Amino acid sequence: RWLGDSHWLVNGILGGWQMNGILAYATGSPFTISSNRYHLTIGGYSTADCTGCDAGMTSKVLRDGDTLRALTTDEIKLFTDPASGSAGLLAERYFRQSTRWVFDGSIFKSFRLGFLPGEQGALQSRFEFFNMFNHPRFGSPTSNITSGSFGVVSPPTSNQRIIQVALKILF
């Protein structure tokens, strides 16, 4: 125990704290860039053609003024419509969203309460953090090459940092 051998007042305030943490990390989910043209089947669209593309080129988030983008202007120019009746040269789910990571943690300490019966009579003070470092989680960029917002990523609207403070009686 940290500060377990110090003065009872210092130990009572600063000693005996415990910490927990969970780190979750995931590569971005796969998605398809389509042309929104040349229907091959009912409800099916052709994928786009792209020369010089790699699967990781969409896994970043760039700020362009007030807009968030996954592709630079030069990268957008690499995408073209497929030939009429063609399925497109890109494989489905070839590209990936940006990586996602989140750290949740807690800090807590139990204060012994002598008036509660049993060995476990205590008051526990807890501070819990969800998405402690407030890392944003972006969605997929607009994936239709005919859209005016092709490559634009929507800003995160959920999963922001949450802090909870609690007192828990153990008996």
What spatial order of strands do you see in the largest sheet? 1-8-9-11
Distance between the termini: 22 Å
Radius of gyration, in angstroms, nearest whole number: 26 Å
- Unreliable spans: none
The string of secondary-structure elements, in order, is HEEEEEHEEEEEE
Strand content: 25-35%
List the helices and strands and how they pair.
Elements: H1 8-14, E1 18-26, E2 30-31, E3 49-50, E4 62-64, E5 67-69, H2 73-76, E6 79-80, E7 95-96, E8 100-112, E9 122-130, E10 152-153, E11 162-170
Antiparallel strand pairs: 1-8, 2-7, 3-6, 4-5, 5-10, 8-9, 9-11
Task: Provide an overview of this structure.
With 171 residues, the chain is mainly β. It is built from two helices and eleven strands, in the order αβββββαββββββ. It has helices at residues 8-14, 73-76; strands at residues 18-26, 30-31, 49-50, 62-64, 67-69, 79-80, 95-96, 100-112, 122-130, 152-153, 162-170. The strands form four sheets. Strands 1-8-9-11 form a four-stranded antiparallel sheet, with no helix packed on it. A three-stranded antiparallel sheet has the order 4-5-10, with no helix packed on it. Strands 2-7 form a two-stranded antiparallel sheet. The protein is rod-shaped, with a radius of gyration of 26 Å. 12% of the residues are buried. The model has no long low-confidence stretch (mean pLDDT 85).
